[in-house]
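Question:
Write out your own:
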Amino acid sequence: MAIVLDNCSYSYSNNLEENVLSGVSFRVDAGSFISVIGPNGSGKSTLAKLLNGLYIPTSGRVEVDGLSTREKKNIPQIRRKVALLFQNPDNQIVGDTVEEDTAFGPENLGLDRDEITKRVEDSLSKVGLLEKRKMSPNTLSGGEKARLGIAGVLALEPEVLVLDEATAMLDPKGRREVMEILHELWKNQGKTIILITHHPEETIYGERIIVLDKGEIKLDGSVEEVYRNSGKLKKLGLELPSYVELSLLLKEKGVIDDIAFDSSSLCTLMENKK
C-alpha cells in the first residue's frame, strides 16, 4: 500500500494565490516512518488532513492504495487505512474507562464482541495501558492519554498512522514514551508512521524527513541527508537535534570529523579522532 500526492495545492479560500500548500508531491511506501517538519504556518497540519481525505486538495491528487480522495465513495475505506491522531488527546476521549474508549472505534465498525475485546486488549498491550483498562481516562497523565489515543486508532487496525503534533502538549518523558511506542510499531509491527512535529529530537526515531516552508517542500531525504543541510534548516528557523548541534560545534573545532545523532555515535567519533 502506498500514499501518493501529485502536485497538490490547497487553499482555504479557493484563491490559488493564497495557497496553504503549493505543488506538493511525494510518495509514502508501506512500512515507512516519515517525519514532517517546518516553521509555524508552513502547512504541516493541512498536509496531515489531506492524507486521509479530511481535506480534499484544491488542485492535484491524493491517492491511498490507488483510491482517490476526490471520490466520496472511497473516503470510508481510506479512513480505515489511514488513521489521524490530533494534538490534544482530551478532544478524542469518548469513553468512561480506558477500555471503553479504545473500543469506541471497533464498535462503530460493527464488529462482534469477541473481536472488539481482542482488539482492545491487543492495542492496550502495545501502548502499555492494559493494566489500567478499568480506570477513567481522566486519571491518566498527559503521556498516558496520548498513548490511549494511539491505542484507539490501533484498535481500528489501520495500515498508516498520521500524528499531527500528537506529542506537542507532553513533557519530555511523555514524548519519549510515545516516540518509543511509535518506533516499535514501525520497526517490529510494520506500521507506516507519518509524524508531524516541531520537536527535532523526534525525527531521529524515523528514517526520512520532509521539510515544509510556506506550503512547499524544501527538503526531502533520509534523516542524515536532511541534517547535513543544517545551514538551510537554520535559515528556515528550524532547530537541530541536540546531538547534531553539538557534533557540528565539535566538528568546527576539529574534535570530530562527522555529525552524530546520539551519545554512542558521538563517543565513537571522538574515539576515532584520537
